[in-house]
């Protein structure tokens, strides 16, 4: 059977899709590049904003037309939207055969198989049988998961390690924590991904080792609040001598000090373990950090371990205390700034990035001005800026009316983007004149005419604005350890391709808002 799989949303979804591909591939399913060549169409969806859902729904509409025209297809909606929309989706879109939430992906082969059999039995008639696997409230219960039930862990464990499994074989994701317990009022993730579950450190280290053995030189650890990782040994169920994933931080860890202290692996411990036990790993990164959970131990681990990238994606979300409180983010602007100051004190060459939501309910002009001021003050290399999108099922949609008109949201979005662009240009300019290792990952043709895009400023050493160089040709594109994008001229497309997947020293010569340019010095 030929399968087409399209992925929307975050890195978690990209990893899930990789695992699904591995799992179905090992069962003989064949993956194709084009949806019109496939018999099974799978969309791994995102629910974080309405726009993300609309993209997936437009695909559902197109497949619906094809099915009505008589094509025999199996349509599966996977991921967060399946979980959020649940059975409503089946009611509204009869063309959907399979719904599979992100916590149930290990059941996907069975679901596809059931629908296939039902379709075969009805000899071309539209099958009545539909496959549904959603976690519902189950993943939110507080009991310890038993390893036997935890099919998702076995999905992570059974991943295909060969380089073909990934688009960029030199780079891989490893999940350390699933779910989220923060309940920011605007966010669907705690509902779609369920309760926070920490994977046993041995599984994680082993996975990293095997990926590196298979050619990965960069690993990105994934978690919604990745730095909240904490595994308390001896409290989870063990099966066959192996430790199982653990719901929450292991409550014993937080009981009174007089209780016998269970051994825990903190996020800092985990970073050190991976760094020390997988010496072939050249870059260890992690996303997304939750500002409040960033302790000095993590900064110390990063300072001591040279192959841990000094890059923090730690979203501020807003520069106003009132808005942060309504968002239930759990920190004030001053606390966020204190965290940034501590970071740069410990790691002067660190880079900082984040996310910001504009137009959250009740956001006044003054609130917005405070966010602008934060983006001017702090050295954000970039921020993803989003217009608030009310999401069904969240606290915010019930508690706070969506009272900021869309044109105000749009204006705030654009205004903030322009400010971010200036901040980005300043951050990038500080790197000009330095030599840094760059991991190359793509090649692009460079257009001849190139004035900087509006809102961006090109800078050279000394800070004088200049036009970007206007030579046509090829550029190899890569990233520094701090995730700054670097372009280097190369003689040909092939020469650029040959650099992909390797780390090379680059002398940085000029900077724009989102790009550094330099020369390969190796
Ligand atoms: N766990 C990460 C973020 C996950 S979602 C964290 O806490 O930082 C990625 C980003 O989407 C969030 O940081 C937020 O900026 C944005 N986002 C989430 N829900 C949103 C909503 N309802 N409307 C607009 N943006 C939203
Ligand atoms: Fe959503 Fe907040 Fe959890 Fe991030 S920390 S996933 S924004 S609830
Ligand atoms: Fe989207 Fe789910 Fe990721 S809602 S951002 S795919 S966790």
Write a brief structural summary.
34% of the residues lie in helices and 22% in strands. The chain is built from 15 helices and 25 strands. The strands form seven sheets. Strands 2-1-3-4-5-6 form a six-stranded parallel β-sheet, sandwiched between helices. A five-stranded mixed beta barrel has the order 20-22-23-25-24.
Could you list some keywords that capture this structure?
five-stranded mixed β-barrel; Rossmann fold; 34% helix; Transcription Regulator spoIIAA; 4 domains; six-stranded parallel β-sheet; 522 residues; globular; 15 helices; single chain; alpha/beta; binds iron/sulfur cluster; binds FE3-S4 cluster; binds S-adenosyl-L-homocysteine; 25 strands
Description:
The longest helix has 24 residues, at 406-429. This protein has a 6-stranded parallel β-sheet, sandwiched between helices. A 5-stranded mixed beta barrel has the order 20-22-23-25-24. It has a 3-stranded parallel β-sheet with strand order 7-10-16, with helices on both faces. With 522 residues, the chain is of the alpha/beta class. It has 4 domains: 2-134, Methylthiotransferase, N-terminal domain (Rossmann fold), CATH 3.40.50; 139-309, Transcription Regulator spoIIAA; 310-430, 2-Layer Sandwich (Transcription Regulator spoIIAA); 435-520. The chain has helices at residues 11-26, 50-68, 80-92, 108-121, 151-157, 189-192, 201-213, 267-277, 296-304, 321-327, 333-346, 365-377, 395-399, 406-429, 493-499; strands spanning 2-7, 30-31, 40-45, 74-79, 98-100, 131-133, 171-175, 177-178, 197-198, 218-222, 230-232, 238-239, 242-243, 246-247, 264-266, 283-287, 311-313, 351-358, 380-387, 435-446, 459-460, 473-479, 485-490, 503-511, 516-520. Helix 7 packs parallel to helix 8 (267-277) and helix 8 runs parallel beside helix 9. It is built from 15 helices and 25 strands. The structure holds S-adenosyl-L-homocysteine, iron/sulfur cluster and FE3-S4 cluster. FE3-S4 cluster binds next to helix 1 and helix 6.
């Amino acid at each position: 059977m030929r399968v087409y799989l399209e992925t929307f949303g975050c890195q978690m979804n990209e990893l899930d899709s990789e695992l699904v591909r591995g799992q179905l591939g090992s069962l003989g399913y064949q993956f194709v590049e084009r949806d019109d060549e496939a018999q099974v169409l799978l969309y791994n969806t995102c629910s974080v904003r309405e726009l993300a859902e609309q993209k997936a729904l437009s695909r559902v509409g197109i497949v619906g037309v094809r099915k009505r025209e008589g094509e025999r297809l199996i349509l599966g909606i996977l991921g967060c939207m399946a979980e959020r929309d649940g059975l409503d989706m089946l009611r509204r879109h009869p063309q959907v055969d399979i719904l599979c939430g992100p916590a149930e992906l290990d059941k996907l082969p069975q679901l596809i198989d059931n629908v296939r059999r039902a379709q075969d039995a009805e000899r071309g008639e539209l099958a009545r049988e539909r496959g549904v696997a959603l976690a519902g409230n189950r993943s939110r219960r507080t009991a310890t998961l038993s390893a036997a039930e935890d099919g998702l862990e076995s999905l992570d464990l059974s991943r295909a390690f060969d380089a073909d499994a990934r688009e960029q074989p030199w780079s891989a994701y490893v999940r350390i924590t699933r779910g989220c317990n923060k309940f920011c009022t605007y966010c669907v993730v705690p509902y779609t991904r369920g309760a926070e579950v920490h994977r046993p450190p041995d599984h994680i280290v082993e996975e990293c080792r095997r990926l590196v053995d298979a050619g990965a030189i960069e690993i990105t650890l994934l978690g919604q609040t990745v730095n909240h990782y904490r595994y308390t040994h001896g409290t989870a169920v063990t099966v066959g001598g192996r430790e199982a994933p653990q719901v929450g931080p292991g409550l014993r860890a937080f009981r009174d000090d007089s209780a016998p202290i269970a051994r825990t692996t903190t996020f800092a411990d985990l970073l050190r373990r991976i760094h020390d036990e997988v010496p072939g790993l050249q870059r260890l990164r992690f996303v997304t950090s939750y500002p409040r959970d960033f302790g000095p131990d993590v900064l110390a681990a990063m300072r001591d371990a040279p192959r841990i990238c000094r890059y923090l994606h730690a979203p501020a979300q807003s520069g106003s205390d009132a808005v942060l409180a309504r968002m239930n983010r759990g920190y004030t602007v001053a606390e966020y700034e204190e965290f940034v100051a501590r970071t740069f004190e410990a790691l002067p060459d660190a880079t900082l990035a984040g996310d910001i939501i504009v137009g959250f309910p009740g956001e006044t002009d003054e609130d917005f001005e405070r966010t602008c001021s934060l983006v001017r003050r702090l050295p954000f290399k970039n921020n993803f800026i989003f217009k608030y999108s009310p999401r069904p099922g969240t606290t915010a949609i019930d508690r706070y009316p969506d009272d900021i008109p869309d044109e105000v949201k749009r204006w705030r979005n654009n205004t903030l983007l322009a400010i971010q662009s200036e901040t980005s240009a300043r951050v990038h300019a500080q790197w000009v004149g330095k030599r840094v290792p760059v991991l190359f990952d793509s090649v692009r043709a460079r257009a001849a005419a190139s004035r900087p895009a509006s809102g961006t400023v090109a800078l050279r050493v000394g800070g004088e604005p200049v036009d970007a160089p206007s030579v046509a040709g090829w550029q190899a594109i890569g990233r520094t350890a701090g995730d700054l994008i670097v372009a280097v001229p190369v003689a040909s497309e092939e020469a650029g391709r040959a650099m992909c997947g390797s780390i090379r020293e680059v002398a940085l010569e000029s900077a724009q808002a989102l790009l550094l340019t330099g020369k390969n010095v190796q």
